[in-house]
Amino acid sequence: MSLLWLKKIPSELGFAIKILLNLHFPGPVKMFFRKFVLRNIIIMNINGKNAIVTGGGRGLGKAVALALANEGVHVAVTGRNEENLKNTVEEIKALGVNAAYAVFSMDNESEVKTGIESLVKQLGSVDILINNAGIGDFGSIEEMPSETWEQVIKTNLFGVYYAAKAVHPFMKANGQGDIVNVASTAGLKGGPNMSAYAASKAAVVSLSQSMMAEWRKQNIRVITLTPSTIASDMSIQGGLTDGNPDTVLQPEDFAEWVRDILKMNRRALIANGSIFSTNP
Asked: Is residue 101 annotated as a catalytic residue, yes or no?
């Protein structure tokens, strides 16, 4: 039997249902209400919302896009590789929701603003921004060219800033929204041969905390996530992990985490959080 109808129960009925549970119903009836009804009142339904996922053509971004689409969220993805974006859009549409894409570089404010506005127009609105796009060039301070170091900062830091600034007017007008800024544990503690990446992610953490402080009064939840190494294309190609699915975090693990955070009741805000492989 389908239980999708339970997700449509207004939260205002929660109190009445709790009273019913205190009446003398048979044990199985109470168990049903606790397991299926109350759970869907506490957990927010994100079906029908509109999301933009930057860097959504592959890796973590694609995994999050598909996880949201599985929940009935209409999803737009951005990136620089149009072929990857087209493939992702087809997979999203196959799940029965609307999808769109835009090709632009995160280090160009004009492109980001134009691209985001185009996607909002295609979706109809924007409720969720997953600020995921980023690059990872690694090397020693001594050997890495300054131009490369600067590009990492421009993409990883300014890209987050540009995208959030572009969606903010729409969320403010709607009276609510969710922005998930993807940083890294490297932003909490730097290491050798990752100065550019670590510095960019540390800056994202601080930027995201400032966003949260400014925008939470507008009912916009800004969430800062600092995942450890995940078996993404970037991590594997950069030699950070072998990506062993038995021991190393997979993109799908991260996507499930993001999905569950977004489904929390709007009175709750996960300001920041980290996720690690148990025993890599």
From this structure: no
